[in-house]
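Incident log, structure service

09:12 report received: a user says their structure output differs between two submissions of the same chain.
09:20 pulled the input from the user's history:
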Amino acid sequence: MEGTILEQLSSGPIYLICGGIIAFVALVCVVFLVRAWRAGLAIGMDRAKMKRAVAASASFSALPSVGILLGVIALSGSLGVPWPWLRLSVIGALHYETQVAAAAAESVGLPELSGSAMTAQAFATIALLMSVCIMWGMILSALFNKRYLHRLHGQGEKKAGEKKAGGFGDIAMSAMFIGMVSAYLGSYLGDFISGAGKFTFQGSWTPIAVALVSALVMALLTWLSEKKNMQWLDNFSIAASMLVGMMAAVALG
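09:34 re-ran on a clean worker, output below:
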């Protein structure tokens, strides 16, 4: 049964559908890249600076893609190759896809997210939940981005010496990020807490160690950028932290 369902999830028609969507998105990216380059030249931007921006953006995109590839490999054992490839290539995020897929599998009664327990009905539910939960960013952007851009333009017209107070968006993003990190780490920290309140090593300590390693790498790169005038590291700090964290997970696992 495992081979049958995984063969169906990695069949030619599924590859064709998912590959067609990815090709369309890639084409749109190329079109916007060309139009942005021409627009920059038209307004007199320095060609050398534009090339540096393209190189930095490419590096910033390429380094995290290693983690995305690992996510595709990890999910392909239970969801086939085309669907994780589509999700993580277009709009998905590694932490989101794995978490939602596992939660959806649990909700349909699967003992675990694996190919041996996967059914067509379970896959349909998992794929639907993964899609519905993440589409709101696109919908809200289509509805409210124009109004938000007007607000940003208004803020940009303030005097250069005027100090800007953090708006609701900045506060909300910071609160959401802190909450997300707390939720992820809290689930692992809970494994260390016994009923008597003693610190034990019942659960895996690898996720916590990986988080600490990534945080230390990020702190080091931030310090180098701010204190040693190495501002170019800002373009690679997040990607480098992710890669070092993944290497730490492999080494500690």
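09:41 both user submissions now match this output. Likely a transient worker issue. Closing.
09:42 reviewer note: Residues 184-192+199-253 form one domain. The two ends are 30 Å apart (CA to CA).
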